[in-house]
Recover the amino acids of this structure.
């Protein structure tokens, strides 16, 4: 169960099955979820402060998309899921206390924990390991 039951989480992923899974596990954990496909839609939504997102889970954003997402909401907790990243994105995540990297493959419960930790202000870093990003 979420420790932040009223939190609205934006979930963006280009893979419909992954988007559905993330929506299901976050909803089951007690979060409200807005699910979208693709970076054009999430950068547009994050640019509008009227949406009131409390956190975002973004799949493999480009440096441009991550910067656009962070521009209007610099303190927004962001979980980035990725199999590989542009070095600029990895550096931006490492320098941001409100962001974390969750390398693929990940377990659904890891996404829930990452969102909860960032919403709680703890800031987390996923461990590096075989097949994982540093």
């Amino acid at each position: 169960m979420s420790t932040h039951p009223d939190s609205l989480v934006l979930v963006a992923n280009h893979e419909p099955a992954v988007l559905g899974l993330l929506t299901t596990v976050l909803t089951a954990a007690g979060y409200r979820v807005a699910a979208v496909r693709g970076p054009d839609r999430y950068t547009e939504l994050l640019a509008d402060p009227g949406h009131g997102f409390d956190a975002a889970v973004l799949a493999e954003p480009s440096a441009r998309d991550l910067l656009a997402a962070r521009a209007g909401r610099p303190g927004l907790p962001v979980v980035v899921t990725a199999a590989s990243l542009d070095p600029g994105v990895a550096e931006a995540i490492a320098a941001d206390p409100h962001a974390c990297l969750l390398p693929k493959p990940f377990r659904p419960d890891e996404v829930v924990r990452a969102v909860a930790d960032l919403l709680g202000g703890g800031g987390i870093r996923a461990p590096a390991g075989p097949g994982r990003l540093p």
